[in-house]
Amino acid sequence: MNFTLSKRTSLSFSSVFRFSDGDNYSTIIYEDFDLSDVLSQTVTRDELEVDFGRNQEYTLSFRKTVPQKGRLWTLDVKKNFAIGNEQSHLFENSTDLLDVPIFQRTINDEKENSWLFQTDYTITKSKLVQRTIWT
Hints:
With 135 residues, this protein is mainly beta. The protein has strands at 2-4, 9-33, 39-65, 71-94, 102-123. It has no helices and 5 strands.
């Protein structure tokens, strides 16, 4: 949303919402070789990753053009909030008969809560200055 407060002043608001809920499958094959470059074992790792997340971002922007030519003042405020949960199930199996198959579970909870305040006052010159440097 954009609001024009006066001829030189405006206020804008924007927001983003993102939801994610998905499964990721992967298979990785490791091949181990000895010093003679002979395959000593093959390890297969299968992973199922279940991912859930939510992200919300809000931005409020103020813009004022100053009466002097080429001058602008801006002010931005951003708020970001995100949560996420990731659960993985890993199964690892080896061709080495002495290795026991491995099953692992991991859980990762994430949370982000941040603010950003930024203000800029810019001055642009309409004439370019060219300098020649002799070496």
